[in-house]
């Protein structure tokens, strides 16, 4: 219960002030818990931020996965997932900045989507839609690329269609022809 109160308070404060403005005392005050309780659950502020982002990634990943299950063509599944992840930078920039700045966001996201990603890629390989050698390396490349594209969107270097362009690039890297 206390851990949930701390992560909830931190999420609210991050949304209001960003990670840079986050202070442990303010988190505990908002959560209505004693300062010492913070250290019973987290060693550092960064560990708390990672927990908040992991929870947030999990919620977003589950929503994407639920929608992916309704799409039959593996190439369309990959396109949808890529576009949805990049859209976070447009639709929820505070959250996207968290993903971009968090040291291990790529690892957290990979761990959450790995079973679905592997199954989708294997279906695509079996159906002749994809031509790839290693599904795990493909996931690492897509995840790293997504974080880089999100950063570029947040920095204002890419226009409104970066999600579609990224999805097309990923599909090409998986062996899907231009047509």
Characterise the protein shown here:
- This protein is mainly alpha-helical and 179 residues long.
- 76% of the residues lie in helices and 0% in strands.
- It has helices spanning 2-17, 24-31, 35-41, 45-68, 74-91, 93-101, 105-126, 135-154, 162-173.
- The radius of gyration is 18 Å and the shape is elongated.
- α1 packs across α2 (24-31), α5 (74-91) crosses α6 and α7 (105-126) crosses α8 (135-154).
- The model has no long low-confidence stretch (mean pLDDT 88).
Secondary structure elements and their pairing?
Blueprint (H helix, E strand, L loop, with lengths): L1 H16 L6 H8 L3 H7 L3 H24 L5 H18 L1 H9 L3 H22 L8 H20 L7 H12 L6
Helix pairs in contact: 1-2, 1-4, 4-7, 5-6, 5-7, 5-8, 5-9, 6-8, 7-8, 8-9
């Amino acid at each position: 219960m206390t851990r949930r109160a701390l992560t909830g308070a931190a999420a609210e404060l991050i949304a209001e002030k960003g990670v840079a403005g986050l202070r442990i005392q303010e988190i505990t005050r908002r959560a209505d818990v004693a300062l010492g309780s913070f250290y019973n659950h987290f060693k550092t502020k960064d560990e708390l931020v990672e927990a908040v982002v992991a929870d947030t990634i999990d919620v977003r990943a589950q929503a994407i996965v639920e929608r992916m299950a309704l799409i039959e063509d593996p190439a369309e599944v990959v396109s949808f997932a890529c576009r949805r992840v990049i859209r976070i930078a447009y639709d929820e920039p505070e959250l996207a900045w968290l993903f971009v700045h968090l040291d291990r966001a790529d690892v957290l996201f990979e761990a959450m989507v790995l079973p679905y990603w592997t199954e989708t890629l294997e279906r695509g390989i079996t159906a002749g839609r994809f031509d790839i050698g290693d599904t795990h390396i493909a996931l690492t490349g897509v995840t790293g690329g997504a974080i880089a594209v999100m950063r570029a969107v947040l920095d204002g270097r890419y226009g409104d269609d970066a999600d579609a362009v990224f999805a097309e690039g990923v599909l090409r890297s998986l062996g899907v022809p231009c047509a």
